[in-house]
Specification:
The chain has about 325 residues and is of the alpha/beta class. It folds into two domains: about 200 residues, NAD(P)-binding Rossmann-like Domain (Rossmann fold, 3-Layer(aba) Sandwich); about 90 residues, UDP-galactose 4-epimerase, domain 1 (Alpha-Beta Complex). Helices cover about 40% and strands about 15% of the residues. It has eleven helices and 13 strands. The strands form four sheets. It has a seven-stranded parallel β-sheet, with helices on both faces. Helix 3 packs parallel to helix 5, helix 5 runs parallel beside helix 6 and helix 7 packs parallel to helix 9. It is globular, with a radius of gyration of 19 Å. Bound molecules: NADP nicotinamide-adenine-dinucleotide phosphate (NAP) and ligand G4F. Ligand G4F binds next to helix 4 and helix 7.
């Protein structure tokens, strides 16, 4: 029988790659679409991957449980992937209530809707390495204590613990992926990797002469979104729900990422980068480094795209997008 999946956050980076993966596996894919006055541009990532016309969209919002109940009753999904969130850490200090409402309570709305309408539906929660924040161990695993450092991280930690609570209290098949940073040509332009690759392309093409960034010493464990959505799917194919760290196991600084991206087009990062206080945060997560051993042992998952490949794919894509036709 054809499996049905419902994806929240389908218009985002991961939603697009997950849609492509599930369609390739023969799933019927449904997406939750929040109403926007810019409906003509929403869906550009799905168009980029050529999957927009294969998805059935439903008008709903994570903050409105009645809309979630209605969509679940209509779709009767075998699997729900909750990727919807206010996902930009810096904005979470400007909009802490909105972030808590969407990224924290939104997950509980979905868990509650599943419990009421369709308790046999399997659930994936998009948890995050940001929950480790002020890290308590040099390599973070499922057993590392959390120490969130932003309204975003605190909201996600609430959603994470509620997912565990709904699993233990009501027997839902609910799993969380604690995903470390993952990027792609479809990454939002406000995140540092995409800001860098877009900036490199603009400088190389003569459209800009410098790139202003914030903390160049922050270190992240960066992988490719295409690899990471495979781990989400694998979690929902397990007999027993659980939580998994998904990461590459390597960490590099923003400065290192810049060096790789500029070098790919034959330039030196130090000739173009400036530091601007506007891009600093009230509290910084200085370093994240994941330990993905459990995912390898239990899911048979590991990252397959190297950092070098990721950077090259992103720079090439931005060069193509910005080059005159
Ligand atoms: P993204 O590109 O920012 O996409 C976020 C999605 O959430 C968009 O589709 C957005 O819709 C949707 N959304 C926002 N508010 C909503 C609401 N009120 N109701 C329904 N949908 C709403 O994020 P991403 O990078 O794909 O990440 C996917 C998920 O994984 C997020 O939950 C993120 O927090 C989490 N995560 C990401 C990473 C990472 O490195 N990428 C790492 C760990 C965890 P619009 O298009 O309408 O704005
Ligand atoms: O790219 P970022 O904005 O991503 P951040 O804050 O790590 O969050 C991303 O990954 C999380 C997983 O760990 C997700 F949960 C979350 O939803 C999101 O996808 O910033 C990365 C680092 C930070 O330390 C930041 O201070 O880069 C530093 N940075 C330096 N200059 C900058 C800039 N970040 C941005 N966005 N812009 C800058 O100019």
């Amino acid at each position: 029988m054809t499996k049905r999946a419902l994806i929240t956050g389908i218009t985002g980076q991961d939603g697009a790659y997950l849609s492509q993966l599930l369609l390739g596996k023969g799933y019927e894919v449904h997406g939750l679409l929040r109403r926007s006055a810019s409906a003509d541009v929403v869906g550009s990532r799905l168009n980029f991957l050529g999957v927009r016309d294969s998805i059935e969209m439903h008008d709903a919002n994570l903050t409105d449980i009645t809309s979630l109940i209605r969509v679940i009753e209509t779709v009767k999904p075998d699997e729900i992937y909750n990727l919807g969130a206010q996902s930009f850490v810096k904005t979470s200090w400007q909009q802490p209530i909105l972030t808590g409402t969407v990224s924290g309570l939104g997950a509980v709305n979905m868990l509650e809707a599943i419990r009421i309408v369709s308790p046999e539906t399997r659930y994936y929660q998009a948890s995050t390495s940001e929950m480790y924040g002020l890290i308590q161990e040099p390599r973070q695993s499922e057993k590392t204590p959390f120490y969130p450092r932003s309204p975003y991280a605190a909201a996600k930690l609430y959603a994470h613990w509620m997912t565990i609570n709904y699993r233990e209290s009501f027997g839902l098949h609910a799993s969380s992926g604690i995903l470390f940073n993952h990027e792609s040509p479809l990454r939002g332009i406000e995140f540092v990797t995409r800001k860098i690759t877009d900036g490199v392309a603009r400088i190389k093409l003569g459209m800009a002469d410098s790139l202003a960034l914030g903390n160049l010493d922050a270190k992240r464990d960066w992988g490719h979104a295409r690899d990471y959505v495979e781990a989400m799917w694998l979690m929902l194919q397990q007999d027993v729900p659980d939580d998994y760290v998904i990461a590459t196991g390597q960490t590099v600084s923003v400065r290192d990422f810049c060096d790789l991206a500029f070098a790919h087009v034959g330039l030196k990062a130090e000739d173009y980068i400036t530091v601007d206080q506007r891009y600093m945060r009230p509290a910084e997560v200085e370093v994240l480094l994941g330990n993905p051993e459990k995912a390898k042992a239990k899911l048979g998952w590991e990252a397959t795209t190297s950092l070098d490949q990721l950077v090259r794919e992103m720079v090439d894509s931005d060069m193509e997008r910005l080059s005159p036709r």
